[in-house]
Amino acid sequence: MTSVGLISLGCKVNTYETEYLTNILKDRGYTIKDFDDKCDIYIINTCTVTNTSDTKSGKTIRRAKKNNPQAIIVAMGCFIESHKENNNFEGIDIVVGTKDKAKVPELIEEYQKKKEQIINLYKEVPSDFEDMYIEEFPGRTRAFVKIQDGCENFCSYCIIPFVRGKCCSKDKDKVLEEIKSLVNNGYKEVVLTGIHTGNYGVDLDITFADLLKEIVKIEGLKRLRISSIECTEINDEILDIINNNKVIVDHLHIPIQSGTDEILKLMNRKYDIEYFENKIKEIRNIRKNISITTDLIVGFPHETNDLFEQTLKRCESINFSKIHVFPYSERKGTKAVEMDEKVDQETKKIRARKVLELSKKLEIDYFNKFIGCEEEVLIETSKDGYSYGHTGNYLNVKINEELEHNTFVKVKIVKVDYPNVIGEIIK
Questions:
Q1: Within a 13 Å sphere around the CA of 222, how many CA atoms are in the beta-carbon half?
Q2: For residues 13 and 196, what is the distance between their CA atoms, to the nearest angstrom?
Q3: Is residue 114 within 8 Å of residue 160, measured between CB atoms?
Q4: Residue ranges of the domains in the chain?
Q5: What is the mean pLDDT of residues 387-406?
Q6: Is the distance from CB of 72 to CB of 93 less than 8 angstroms?
Q7: In angstroms, how far is CA 319 from the centroid of its own chain?
Q8: Do domains 3-120 and 126-249 have the same CATH topology?
Q9: Cβ atoms of 398 and 257 closer than 8 Å
Q10: 379, exposed or middle or buried, with CB in 10 Å at 0-12, 13-18, 19+?
């Protein structure tokens, strides 16, 4: 049997696409193996969000060739799309950009017949949504559903609008059908994901709120999670849905990127810091204990020590429950590359470390709020006499007992054991 090793780099959208291909290839009789095993075919779903991502994508392609020099190498995705003008794809047998990933199985068969390099790229990224459908995620308790692709925000640091193209959305009925199928297959938690998830429906003349209203009615769905959403997209209609539907979990990931208006403007973000703070207050007015996590870029051009300290204080006062920090990485093809007053690498590292220290403090503070509380945990893994899972608001819970995978248990949170909280089962 022909063996395939697949790997996904970068975002949850890539994870979904790679899982789709895994399922399709398995159905066609291919043997799925670990990427670092010797395989007949390797598929790399690449990322290009930073220069570091580019380096990792290139290394992973070379790693596949090293694992088996005779293997068919398939490289697809954002890294490929961002380098298509170079037209230098030596060592890659099948080249696919950010569109036509679903056609990879057919392209593999074509290559096996002709033994000639296939380059499947477009001059401009097509603006139609590429349908994929997943019924199961083996080994996972959380199922992803890709509802949207593309972005038109054009933040000054980001290459993704250029490689993913215009916003496009999955047909609403197809989204609902996919979620119903996952629920029928035993999945209790579904994560909606996209490149610009909250902009769902802009090309279909419907809104993200319209979609949410239908999803929350699906019988048997216990938890609905939104992978990421911009503060500008959380309008009154979305707030009303969150307020009235407990199936939407007590967690939102809302990128802030900077805590000062000066840097937000340079980043071409679509809000100022006052707007952001007011939106968080609105959310907490309807969900008092909600977990709000964020993304933050440090060391962006023109970010002085004073501006960084303002950002740090702002993040503390907003009281996020976790901060994902990214030292600014130059990305060729973006406006930020042309900016002066660059921040040196050592300063970026120091600032990132300070943010991580703050994030840990905020996370522990958030955990401590739930000591003595009863919470429902979805069991994800069990080993060495312990079980691990998440609450809806993303507490990592450790339980002193091996429990069945993909089941809900009620626990009392008794103490913090960072990065977990300890939960005792309520009999």
A1: 16
A2: 10
A3: no
A4: 3-120, 126-249, 251-369, 374-425
A5: 96
A6: yes
A7: 22
A8: no
A9: no
A10: buried
SS3 content of the chain, % helix, strand, coil (to 5): 35, 25, 40
Q: Measured between alpha carbons, how far is 57 from 34 in angstroms, rounded to an integer?
A: 17
Cα separation, 10 vs 4, in Å, equals 20
Q: In 3-state terms, what secondary structure has residue 249?
A: coil
The predicted model scores a pTM of 0.95
pLDDT at 51: 84
**What's the mean pLDDT when you consider all of the chain?**
96
Q: How many residues does the chain have?
A: 427
What are the CA-CA distances from residue 241 to residues 44, 330, 334, 384, 402 (Å)? 38, 38, 36, 41, 36
- What's residue 109's pLDDT? 97
Domain 251-369: state its class. alpha beta
Q: Which of these CATH numbers, 3.40.190.150, 3.40.50.12160, 3.40.50.2020, 3.30.70.60, describes 3-120? A: 3.40.50.12160
**Residue 38 reports pLDDT greater than 80:** yes
Q: What is the 3-state secondary structure (H, E, C) of 279-341?
A: HHHHHHHHCCCCEEEEEEEECCCCCCHHHHHHHHHHHHHHCCCEEEEEECCCCCCCHHHHCCC
Task: Note the CATH number of domain 126-249.
Answer: 3.30.750.210
Please calculate the CA angle 159-164-169 and round it to the nearest 5 degrees.
Answer: 135
Cα 211 to chain center, whole Å? 19
Evaluate whether the domain defined by 374-425 bears CATH number 2.40.50.140: yes
